[in-house]
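thread: overnight batch results

M.L. [08:02]
morning all. the overnight job finished for the chain we discussed friday. pasting input first so we're all looking at the same thing
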Amino acid sequence: MIYPIYVYGSHVLRDETKEITKDYPDIKKLAADMFETMYSANGVGLAAPQIGLAIRMFVIDITPYADEDPAYAEFKKVFINPEIYWESDEEVSMGEGCLSLPGLNEDVYRPERVRMRWLDEDFNEHDEELGDFAARVVQHEYDHLEGTVFTDRVNPLRKTLIRGKLTSMGKGKYTAAYKTKQVK
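M.L. [08:03]
and the structure it wrote out:
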């Protein structure tokens, strides 16, 4: 099932998210649907708040980038109740976009490496250090669980310059090549 993706201005993108327990219904189907939704929008990551669910879950698939880094060949993962508990002091800037902010791309500084723990869709525990592009995508999706969107992290001057675009987007003035929804 392909869900509509909630766009900037929708309250669910700022709502507090709840941890998931093993009795959460159809978690594997939800994960599969999230991947399907993400692929239909040509994304590499999707967080549950982006489809209207205020729960601590996101999916990532960066396997198409395996040519750049062979470690990404196996990087299709479900993250449940993730916790980033360490960040490197070194930060790097990279252009980011977001399915919830269609058509908007900005440079964002983020830690180059992070260490995190999470559960997969079978509720197996994982603890791993991630770097480079994998760390970037994980941090971006993790932010969604914290009620943060990437434009919250752009430098103040750029934020001032894109304020008009964000205001327009919040009023429903945007175009996207995928199914979207906006709820105030």
